[in-house]
Amino acid sequence: MEVVIVPDAKAGGELIAEAIADLVRRKPEALLGVATGSTPLPVYEALAGTVRSGGVDVSRARICQLDEYVGLPAGHPESYRSVVLREVVEPLGLGEDAFMGPDGTAADVQAACEAYDRALSEAGGVDLQLLGIGTDGHIGFNEPCSSLASRTRIKTLTQQTREDNARFFDSLEEVPHHVITQGIGTILEARHLVLLATGEGKADAVAQSVEGPVSALVPASALQLHPHATVVVDEAAASKLK
Ligand code: F6R
Predict the structure, then answer these.
(1) The pLDDT of residue 73
(2) Cα end-to-end span (Å), the chain
(3) I need a surface site. Which of 28, 45, 176, 180 has the fewest CB within 10 A?
């Protein structure tokens, strides 16, 4: 695992955006796995800037989602489908046909999870998966105690994560209790994992994931098992590394 410490979130965003641009220059049809939440926004902004200035042509790239709320209508502004379309797909000048994600509205959620894992492998697998990290060490929505071999499935959000995400909704009550998330085993199949963590609030989770034992109690520690994992942290998030 490679750990890169950058001065701030903007620098982290620029560094990762350049790594994505580089990948797309080498492999124009790359399948890029994206995360939602606040942390990756500087990556998407920097990448969209590179695209606008002609630094990379992403017109053949494809985007896939890491997770999705269960039960929010697809058009809900906070469904992850809407968020990824708004923050990634549209700013990159791509259409909805370049995008794939799990169906959080499916009547048979289990079947939707299996279909998504299948769709990812049929698409050739994820080339680069961008990850954030929860204050409890979750990746995707694999909360502590998730199996390190887990596949895409339905998970119940912890109260802590619902509270962390309430800022995107009008009230805590509106935050769904369930999500579909790529499993840790699914995430580990991506060819390159890039985790971005910024801010002091992530410092404990980063230290445990990078320097602690590999454990289901800290899902992001599974990155230690991956042959090509990069952890990009700003100085605040790196503050508890030895
Ligand atoms: C969301 C996701 C989550 C977030 C994590 C951190 O798709 O995968 O694991 O990355 O909850 O969220 P932020 O970046 O908002 O602190």
Answers:
(1) 86
(2) 15
(3) 28
- Residue 45 appears among annotated catalytic residues: no
The ligand 1 atom nearest the CA atom of 202: 16
If you take atom 9 of ligand 1, which residue's CA is the nearest one? 140
Do 94 and 61 meet the contact criterion of CB atoms below 8 Å apart? yes
- Reported in sequence order, the residue ranges of the chain that DSSP labels E, i.e. its strands, are 2-6, 31-34, 62-65, 67-69, 99-100, 128-131, 153-156, 178-181, 192-197, 229-234
pLDDT one-digit tens code per residue, 153-183 = 999 999 999 999 999 999 999 999 999 999 9
**Which among 67, 103, 127, 234 is annotated as catalytic?**
67
Q: Which domain holds residue 110?
A: 2-234
Residue 7 lies in a domain: yes
- Residues 114-135: pLDDT tens digits? 999 999 999 999 999 999 999 9
Q: What is the pLDDT of residue 74?
A: 74
Number of domains in the chain: 1
Catalytic residue, candidates 136, 164, 192, 234: 136
